[in-house]
Amino acid sequence: MGGQTLSDIQHQDAAIIHATCVGVDGRSALIVGRSGTGKSTLALQMMALGAVLIADDRVALRMVEKLALADAAPNISGLIEARGIGLLRAEPAGPVPVNYVVDLDQTEQARLPDPITTLVLRQTVPLLRASGVPNLAAALMQLLKMGRVDPEWPST
Fold first, then answer.
1. What's the rounded Cα separation, in Å, for the pair 137 and 10?
2. Within 13 Å of residue 95, how many CA atoms lie on the same side as its CB?
3. Is-contact 29 22, C-beta < 8 A?
4. How many Cα atoms within 13 Å fall on the side-chain side of residue 69?
5. Residues near 107 by beta carbon (within 8 Å), at least 6 away in sequence
6. Buried b (16+ CB within 10 A) or exposed e, 30-47
7. DSSP of 22-50, one letter per residue?
8. What is the pLDDT of residues 29-69, one digit of tens each?
9. DSSP alpha helix (H) spans, 35-151
10. Is 144 helix (H, G, I), strand (E, B) or coil?
11. Cα distance between residue 16 and residue 9, in whole Å
12. pLDDT at 151
């Protein structure tokens, strides 16, 4: 299924894109990737670990001051697709600021990658190239709860 991508909407004030978004404690991960890459599956795994559904399949984005906020398109609010099972109900949560973009089409080569960013509308957001990342749902849950440490930070 087609739809606008992040690169199509840079510098806009609002858009609806083909993506999925989940939240933890008022922070969110916008999950992007081609159809069939596992966006809904990742969201369901994260929801099983305590995340809330913001939107599945179509994410409504809008700028409020300097923040890109994510919410569900009205006609699909509170619904998530479980392949082979059907549409499932979920308690909708949103709008919420976009804190990370998780790209399931890109592979990260580095074990401890340097931070990179992308634009969500007009907001710069950390980008995670997450194709093939083991334990992705658990790692994203921890990231949304506590953030990450700069790899250059001295360990003790």
1. 27
2. 16
3. yes
4. 13
5. 129, 131, 132
6. bbbbeeebbbbbbbbbbb
7. EEETTEEEEEE-STTSSHHHHHHHHHHTT
8. 999 999 999 999 999 999 999 999 999 999 999 999 999 99
9. 39-48, 136-146
10. helix
11. 9
12. 61
Three-state SS at 10: coil
Token readout for 156 is: 């003790």
Q: Are 51 and 92 in contact (CB under 8 A)?
A: no
* pTM attached to this predicted model: 0.91
Q: How far apart are CA 117 and CA 155, in angstroms?
A: 25
pLDDT of residue 152: 62
In 3D, which of 41, 45, 36 has the Cα closest to residue 82?
A: 41
- Single-letter code of the amino acid located at 6: L
Amino acid at 67: L
> Could you read off the pLDDT of 130-140 as tens digits, one per residue?
999 999 999 99
Q: What is the identity of the amino acid at 155?
A: S
What is the rounded distance in angstroms from the CA atom of residue 56 to the CA atom of residue 78? 8
pLDDT in tens, 79-110: 999 989 999 999 989 899 999 999 999 999 88
